[in-house]
Amino acid sequence: MEQSNQQAILIKKSKPNLFYIYGIIKSMIKKYLPLLLLAVFVIIQFFQIDRTNPAVDASKDLFAVVSANENMKNRVISSCYECHSHTANYPWYTYINPVGWWVKGHVNEGVSKLNFSEWTAYETSKQKHKLEECAERTEATEMPLLPYILAHSDAKMTKDERAKLVAWFNSKAK
What we know:
Helices cover 62% and strands 0% of the residues. With 174 residues, it is mostly helical. The chain folds into two domains: 2-44, no CATH class; 58-173, no CATH class. The termini are far apart.
């Protein structure tokens, strides 16, 4: 009986205390997590986005076939073209990942849904539909996206400017 008690005591002593292990792990995380995160941040900087734009044929652009006064043309370009054409300018902060990946993802998605640089490639019915969508998304303040407006002050619009842009999109969709 005494021998089995001694064995039980040895087994209890050899079992690791879970709270002790948890404390060690917590201490290691506190100590090394900032270094690990810094290392990951530095490593991802080596995976930069492609900031080149495809060549643009001006004869295929929206404004090659759709008329607009200079103010309206400037409004559409400043509010829409950065994400919806092959004329994107990538600011300094796109050199810092993961921000660059995020911006490039938005630009790629925007161009895939609507590309003003390839406007003439759309059939007439699709052009009208795209302009209707532009009017709807602009009127609903879904476009331009808030992060874009925050980063590009020239994309900010008053209610009146937004209404004029919506009216212009709608007039060209007819």
